[in-house]
Amino acid sequence: MTPVARQEVLGLYRRIFRIAKKWQSASGQMEDTIKEKQYIINEAKTVFQKNKDIHLPPLGLAPQRGRAFRNQEKLRKLSKPAYLRSYDEVS
Fold it and tell me: TM spans, by residue (predicted)?
């Protein structure tokens, strides 16, 4: 995982915990709020732990011009299945 992607993932993880900390249940009941907060925390821990070994290439949006954009477009074209490539050539 690239350092930038790692920072984004950790930032998302922290943000989820901040949201859970401030969470209020729709019913307004304290015990419902506590259960929902705990559910959010447990679910975040489970999902992030489960997906810790996933390594995806960075696919952020590049500016509309320049080398980064051309490289990104090239990667996008290469990643398309063959049946979709032939569809694009016709249309």
Answer: none
